[in-house]
Design a protein that fits this description.
The chain is α/β, with parallel strands linked by helices. 65% of the residues lie in helices and 7% in strands. It contains 14 helices and 5 strands. Strands 2-1-3-4-5 form a 5-stranded mixed β-sheet, with helices on both faces. Strand 3 and strand 4 form a beta hairpin. Helix 1 crosses helix 9. The longest helix is centred in the middle third of the chain and has 31 residues. The radius of gyration is 26 Å and the shape is elongated.
Length: 348
C-alpha cells in the first residue's frame, strides 16, 4: 500500500511538472488573487461630511478641523440647520452629518445606501471627533468583523486566500481525475490491481500538499504587500486549512466522478462553487441570512473555512476555538472521500 501511494504521488508530481501551463497557473494564482485583487476590493472610506453645530461654541470649529485633517475625509462643510444638512444627505451631496447638540452630545447620521460603507463612515467619524470616554449617539452599529483594519482589506484578504486554496485544490484535483478518466488512464491503473482507495488517497494527499504550498506563498504575499500578520497561531491556521482542503479536494474528485467528462465536471464545479460561495459568509455576515439558508452552513465547507480563518487570522483564536470547524470539515471530507472510493471503485 505504501509503495503504491508513493508511486502515485511521484506520478502526480511528474504530470504536474510536465504541464508548463499548470505550473504557470500555480505560480500566478497567489500573485493575482492575493497580491492584486484586494486592491480592487478594499472599501477605503473617503467621506464628505457636513457639520451642524447647535452649541455655538468652539467645539464645532474643532470638529471641522479634526475631520478636515483626517486622510479618510474628502471634504467638510457646515450647515446652519439639521434640515439643510439632511437635504444634502438625501440628495447625495454628502455622506454623513455630524450634529453637535446643546447637551454636548454628537449624533452621526450616515447615508445608508451601502450598509458596509455606512458602517465604516460611522466608525471613522466617531473615532475622529470623540474622546474615548465620550458617548456618541449613532444610528448605525458597525459589524466588527468588517473593521479589522482601516479599509477592510484584511477582511477581503482572508476571503481571497480561502478562495485561492479552494480553487487550486478543488479544480486541479477535478481536472486531473476527469482527464485520466477520459484518456482511459484510470482504467489502465485499475487493471493493474490498484485499489480505488489507494488512487483517491494519493490524489487527495498530493493536491492537499500542493495547495498548502500555495497557502504559504499567499500568506507571504499578504504580509509583504498588505501587512497582514495572522493574529492567531500558524499551526492552528495550517491545521484548519488542511482540513478545509481535505474537504475541497475530495469535492473536486466528486465532481470528476459524477461528471464523467470534462464539460460536465466543469459545469458542476462552477454551479456548486457559486452556490457554496454565496451561502458562505464571504460577502455578508451570517446574521444577514434567513434561518433556512443560514442552516445550510452545516454542510458548506466554505463557511467553516472562512469563519475559522477569520477567527484565527483576525481575532487571534487558537486551535480550541476552531475545533468544531475542524471536526465538521473532516466529517464533510470523510463523507466525500467514501463516496469517491465507492464511485471510482466501479471503474474497470
Amino acid at each position: 500500500m505504501k509503495t503504491v501511494l508513493l508511486n502515485n504521488l511521484v506520478k502526480e508530481a511528474l504530470q504536474l511538472v510536465r504541464t508548463p501551463a499548470m505550473v504557470a497557473i500555480l505560480i500566478l494564482c497567489p500573485v493575482v488573487t492575493v497580491g492584486l485583487v484586494p486592491f480592487g476590493l478594499g472599501d477605503k472610506t473617503m467621506l464628505r461630511v457636513e457639520v451642524v453645530d447647535r452649541t455655538f461654541t468652539d467645539r464645532g470649529l474643532e470638529a471641522v478641523s479634526l475631520l478636515a485633517r483626517s486622510p479618510y475625509v474628502k471634504s467638510v462643510g457646515a450647515s446652519n440647520s439639521e434640515s439643510e444638512a439632511e437635504q444634502k444627505l438625501k440628495h447625495g451631496e454628502t455622506d454623513a452629518v455630524v450634529t453637535l447638540s446643546d447637551g454636548g452630545e454628537a449624533t452621526i447620521t450616515v447615508n445608508g445606501a451601502h450598509t458596509l460603507h455606512a458602517a465604516n463612515a460611522e466608525y471613522y467619524i466617531e473615532n475622529i471627533i470623540s474622546p474615548p470616554e465620550e458617548k456618541v449617539l449613532s444610528e448605525i452599529h458597525p459589524h466588527p468583523l468588517y473593521l479589522s483594519c482601516d479599509d477592510n482589506t484584511h477582511y477581503y484578504l482572508v476571503s481571497m486566500i480561502i478562495m485561492l486554496t479552494a480553487i487550486v485544490g478543488c479544480c486541479l484535483s477535478a481536472l486531473s481525475v476527469v482527464r485520466e478518466m477520459e484518456t482511459k488512464v484510470l482504467e489502465h491503473l485499475r487493471s493493474t490491481g490498484m485499489k480505488a482507495l489507494a488512487y483517491v488517497t494519493s490524489k487527495v494527499a498530493f493536491y492537499v500538499c500542493i495547495t498548502l504550498l500555495e497557502l504559504i506563498v499567499a500568506l507571504i504575499i499578504a504580509r509583504v504587500v498588505f501587512g497582514l500578520d495572522p493574529a492567531g497561531p500558524l499551526i492552528a491556521l495550517f491545521i484548519l486549512f488542511a482540513c478545509f482542503l481535505f474537504a475541497m479536494v475530495n469535492l473536486g474528485v466528486t465532481f470528476a466522478a459524477g461528471g464523467k467528462n470534462m464539460a460536465r465536471a466543469i459545469y458542476l464545479l462552477v454551479f456548486v462553487f457559486l452556490i457554496l460561495i454565496l451561502l458562505s459568509t464571504m460577502f455578508a455576515p451570517l446574521d444577514n441570512m434567513s434561518p433556512a439558508w443560514a442552516a445550510t452552513r452545516f454542510v458548506n465547507p466554505f463557511f467553516w473555512g472562512i469563519d475559522g480563518a477569520m477567527k484565527i487570522m483576525l481575532k487571534g483564536v487558537g486551535i480550541s476555538g476552531v475545533f468544531p470547524h475542524i471536526c465538521i470539515l473532516l466529517a464533510i471530507g470523510g463523507l466525500l472521500f467514501t463516496f469517491n472510493v465507492v464511485a471510482l471503485g466501479k471503474v474497470e
